[in-house]
Design goal:
This protein is mainly α. It contains 15 helices and eight strands. The strands form three sheets. A three-stranded antiparallel beta sheet has the order 1-2-3. Strand 7 and strand 8 form a beta hairpin. Helix 8 runs antiparallel to helix 10, helix 8 crosses helix 11 and helix 8 packs across helix 12. The longest helix has 24 residues. It is globular and about 70 Å long.
């Protein structure tokens, strides 16, 4: 597979001097990653087509020498990458993985937390903010358990360490569901470190320790609570009213994810707001959802009217000028702010606390209780397997099962 190396200046972040960072971009396997050069230039000094600093530069006194250095560094990096490719070490990797392989530090300089930090940064570069957040939670968990006075090395994490972590977690009243998330994330970190030669395979502790399965945590709201939210008398245009509209829009659009809702544009609209056609950010899978009257009304509430500009986002989460790798971070920050408002709304309405993510679970559970088959719910959520969908579905109460039983035998 083709590997591309290309210099460019990062025009997203401008210094007070009017200059931008010069970076080397690695493009591989439909992904990219950036290596800072440590130099900053103005737009006028950089020739993007030739990838050189113009001779008129006022930042550098010897542009020829500098351009030669850029070419040399680029060639040396390509040689290292070709060497990895020849050795068969690039199969299935991303651009950020290649950067890590090429610039890997000696294994003794890595601690568990520093390796997690490196992975978090790589994920943020790729726009995978949710996964980066999971790593951040694991890091905080390990700091709380191990302490911060001494470094935590991969060799410190053995079977006894994992068992003690488990006991401490459960003794604090936390459940096995959250424990499973921490342990699976830590296991993935170990596998990644082994793959990159940071950790020896014999140190892998999960051969002895088994991550126990637990009942999935149900996040769905009850139908009565949802009716309370819909019927609440909230001041039009207030933060609470807008938060409710975002939450309900997610449910009405078949449990659409917050990231996907934020990225929807007017160009995704079919006809006169008849359908929304979009691709899931996480998987790239295409979706086509009917715009029901409730969604149309919410869009009018949030935007004032439906006279959108051609480049405008459908929901007022991002602005047309928002662009670049920082978009996922902006969406994540606005999700946190929204969840705080939803918590305030729940308190005001005296119902169970909920977040925007629970909208997917709520849509799935409502659909199940209305008799929609699991296969249909699976397709609506875009899940690859029915097992994924089952984690979203609340259990039926005995009264519902009794009613189903009556339906089966009532006419016999």
């Amino acid at each position: 597979m083709a590997i591309t190396l290309r210099y460019s200046i990062d025009t997203r972040t401008k210094l007070k001097s009017g200059k931008y960072q010069l970076r080397l971009r690695i493009i591989y396997n439909r992904s990219d990653s950036f290596i800072p050069t440590g130099f900053h230039l103005t737009k006028e000094e950089w020739d993007q087509k030739k990838e050189i600093v113009r001779s008129t530069s006022t930042t550098l006194t010897n542009t020829t020498r500098f351009n030669n250095k850029l070419a040399k560094d680029k060639a040396e990096l390509m040689d290292k990458i070709v060497g990895l490719e020849t050795a068969g070490k690039l199969h299935g990797l991303r651009a950020v993985d290649i950067k890590e392989l090429v610039y890997a530090k000696p294994s003794e300089t890595y601690t568990v937390l520093s390796f997690i930090d490196m992975e978090m940064q790589s994920l943020i570069e790729e726009g995978r903010v949710g996964t980066a957040r999971t790593l951040r939670d694991l890091k905080n968990k390990l700091i709380k358990f191990h302490g911060s006075k001494s470094a935590l090395h991969f060799a410190d994490i053995n079977y006894a360490f994992l068992r003690n972590l488990e006991k401490t977690h459960l003794a604090a009243g936390s459940n096995r569901g959250s424990l499973g998330v921490y342990m699976r994330t830590l296991r993935a970190i170990f596998n990644k470190a082994i793959k990159h030669g940071i950790v020896k395979e014999e140190l892998y502790p999960f051969k002895q320790y088994t991550i126990r399965k637990s009942e999935p945590f149900r996040r769905a709201l009850q139908e009565e609570d949802l009716k309370t939210i819909i019927g609440a008398n909230l001041k039009k245009g207030s933060a609470l009213s807008k938060a409710r509209d975002f939450y309900l829009a997610s449910i009405y659009l078949r449990g659409v994810n917050w990231m996907d809702m934020a990225l929807m544009k007017i160009s995704d609209i079919e006809g006169d707001f008849e359908r929304i056609n979009y691709k899931r950010h996480k998987t790239g899978k295409p979706f086509s959802v009917k715009v029901i009257p409730q969604v149309r009304q919410i869009l009018q509430n949030l935007n004032g009217d439906l006279n959108y500009k051609s480049n405008q986002y459908l929901f007022p989460i991002l602005k047309p000028e928002d662009e670049g790798n920082r978009i996922p971070l902006k969406i994540e920050n606005r999700r946190r702010k929204l969840n705080k408002t939803l918590k305030e709304l729940a308190g005001q309405l005296e119902i169970k606390t909920f977040t925007i993510y629970s909208a997917r679970h709520t849509w799935a559970t409502l659909s199940k209780r209305k008799g929609i088959p699991t296969a249909g719910i699976q397709e609506g959520l875009g899940h690859a397997t029915e097992q994924q969908t089952q984690t979203y579905l609340d259990s039926f109460g005995s009264e519902v099962l009794d009613r189903y039983n009556d339906m089966v035998f009532g006419n016999l």
